[in-house]
Amino acid sequence: MHSRCDPGLVNSYSPAEVTVQTGFSIDTLRYYERIGLMHEVGRTAGGRRTFTDEDLRFLHLLRCLRDTGMPIAEMQRFVDLLRDGDGTRDERVDVLRDHERRVGEQIERLREHQEHIRFKIELFAGQPALSEA
User: Fold this and answer.
1) What pLDDT is recorded for position 26?
2) Residues near 74 by Cβ (< 8 Å), separated by ≥ 6?
3) Which residues of the chain have pLDDT under 70?
4) Which is nearest to 18 in space by CA: 36, 42, 35?
5) Separation CA 109–CA 105 (nearest Å)
6) What confidence score (pLDDT) does residue 126 get?
7) How far apart are CA 114 and CA 108, in angstroms?
C-alpha cells in the first residue's frame, strides 16, 4: 500500500515492511504498542496495522535506544515525556544525557576488553605453545 509517487499522500507500510526496515519483529511491534511505547497505529479497512513514515522514524529512535541498552522502563519514561510536549524538553534532554553517559562508559569497557583480546591474539599467534597466558 505505498503511495510514494504522490507527495501529497502519506506513505503507509505493512507490518512486514516495518520489520524489514527497523529490525523489530512483528511480536515486538505488537508488544511496544501494547505497553504504550508506540501509539495505537493506524489500520486498514480490513483491520490490518498500517504504519506511516512518522511511525518508522519513531521506531528507528526506539531501535537506537534499545540497541544501546536503554531499559524498556526508561524508554517508556522518555516516550511519556515526549508525549507531554515542549514543557518536558529539559527532562528529555536529561534522560538522553544520562543514557549517552552510560553508552560512553560501555564503549570504554568494550575498548578495554578489545585491547585484552588483541593482546591474547598477539600472544597466541606469536607463541602457539603458550595456551595458559
Assistant:
1) 95
2) 95, 99
3) 1-9, 127-133
4) 42
5) 6
6) 80
7) 10
- Among residues 70, 95, 98, 62, which one has the least CA distance to residue 81? 95
The percent of the chain in helix, strand and coil, each rounded to the nearest 5, is: 65, 5, 30
- Return the bridge partners of 49, or none: 43
Residue 49 phi, psi dihedral angles, 5° rounding? -65, 145
Q: Enter the DSSP assignment of 50.
A: E
Report the pLDDT value the prediction gives residue 5, as an integer from 0 to 100.
44
User: What amino acid occupies position 98?
Assistant: D
Q: Which of 25, 4, 2 is nearest to 15 (CA)?
A: 25
How far apart are alpha carbons 34 and 15 in whole angstroms? 15
Cα 2 from chain centre: 24
Query: With contact defined as beta carbons under 8 Å apart, do 26 and 16 qualify?
Result: yes
Contact 63, 24 (CB under 8 A): yes
All three cell numbers of 35 = 505497553
Length of the chain: 133
**Given this model, what pLDDT does residue 9 score?**
58
Element (H, E) at 29: helix 26-34
